[in-house]
């Protein structure tokens, strides 16, 4: 459309040049008629050509204005289409975001422990869907030693233990913490011997042991297994 407008504009220049030529011819023949060197008919023919040239200029200008109007309309339409494209792109991004909500991504490397939903089941906000076990955290066991056994225990000391699932295999570990209190002290109703009716009972002290060794060996141990830990010397 812009090319058509340029063509129409060039037609205006051509028509104006033709109009100028006809105007000069008319002026010259008018003067000739005054000195009787030209006839009235010749002047009338030149006047007719001048009128035609003037009309052609006006027509060329109108065509040019129409072409400009079409160009402006096309530009306005382009703005409308660009706005629609942006709206559709924003809508597409929203749909992509909605699709991501259909996939639940674990916050860390893990394994599925227990699943509580089935295919096709409706769920509610906040509902527990599954239990996962973190593969990135260390495995550890808690050994409840007698208070008479912890005299030589220190953080960082190595220990050995066996699991009931693998009685012939030895696993290795390292003491990472010793509880600041006995297990009974953290119970719901801790014992109170202030009454004087005191019976001495050997208490148990929880000792946390980090499992060490190769990943293949550690992978054999599952959460909740029973183990037997040797008292470190």
What does this structure look like?
By secondary structure, this protein is α+β, with helices and mostly antiparallel strands. It folds into three domains: 2-100; 106-136, no CATH class; 138-187 and 200-229, Elongation Factor Tu (Ef-tu), domain 3 (Beta Barrel), CATH 2.40.30. It has three helices and seven strands. The strands form two sheets. Strands 3-6-5-4-7 form a five-stranded antiparallel sheet, with no helix packed on it. It has a two-stranded antiparallel ribbon with strand order 1-2. Helix 1 packs antiparallel against helix 2. The longest helix is centred in the first third of the chain and has 61 residues, at 40-100. It starts with a helix and ends with a strand. 6% of the residues are buried. The model has no long low-confidence stretch (mean pLDDT 79).
Task: Set out the fold topology.
Blueprint: H1 2-34, H2 40-100, E1 110-115, E2 130-134, E3 140-146, E4 158-163, E5 166-178, E6 204-212, H3 215-220, E7 227-229
Antiparallel strand pairs: 1-2, 3-6, 4-5, 4-7, 5-6
Helix pairs in contact: 1-2
- Write down the domain tally: 3
Q: Report strand %.
A: 15-25%
Q: How many individual helices?
A: 3
Distance between the termini: 96 Å
Most strands sheet: 5 strands, antiparallel
Shape assignment: rod-shaped
Q: What class, by secondary structure content? A: alpha+beta
| Strand line-up of the largest beta sheet | 3-6-5-4-7
How large, in whole angstroms, is the Cα Rg? 50 Å
Number of strands: 7
Order of helices and strands: HHEEEEEEHE
Helix coverage percent of residues? 40-55%
Flag low-confidence runs: none
Mean pLDDT metric: 79
């Amino acid at each position: 459309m812009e090319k058509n407008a340029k063509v129409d504009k060039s037609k205006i220049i051509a028509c104006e040049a033709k109009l100028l030529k006809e105007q000069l011819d008319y002026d010259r023949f008018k003067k000739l008629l005054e000195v009787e060197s030209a006839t009235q008919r010749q002047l009338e023919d030149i006047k007719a050509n001048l009128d035609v040239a003037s009309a052609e200029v006006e027509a060329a200008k109108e065509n040019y204005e129409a072409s400009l109007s079409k160009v402006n309309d096309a530009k306005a339409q382009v703005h409308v289409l660009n706005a629609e494209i942006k709206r559709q792109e924003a809508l597409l991004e929203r749909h992509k975001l909605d699709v991501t909500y259909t996939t639940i991504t674990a916050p860390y490397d893990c394994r599925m422990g227990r699943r509580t939903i089935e295919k096709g089941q409706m769920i509610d906000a906040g509902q527990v869907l599954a239990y996962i076990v973190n593969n990135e955290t260390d495995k550890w066991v808690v050994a409840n030693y007698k208070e008479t056994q912890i005299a030589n225990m220190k953080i960082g000391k190595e220990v050995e233990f066996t699991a009931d699932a693998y009685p012939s295999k030895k696993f290795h570990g390292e003491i990472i913490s010793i509880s600041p209190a006995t297990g009974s002290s953290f119970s719901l109703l801790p014992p109170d011997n202030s009454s004087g009716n005191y019976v001495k009972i050997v208490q148990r002290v929880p000792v946390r042991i980090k499992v060490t060794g190769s990943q293949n060996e550690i992978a054999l141990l599952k959460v909740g297994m029973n183990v037997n830990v040797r008292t470190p010397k």
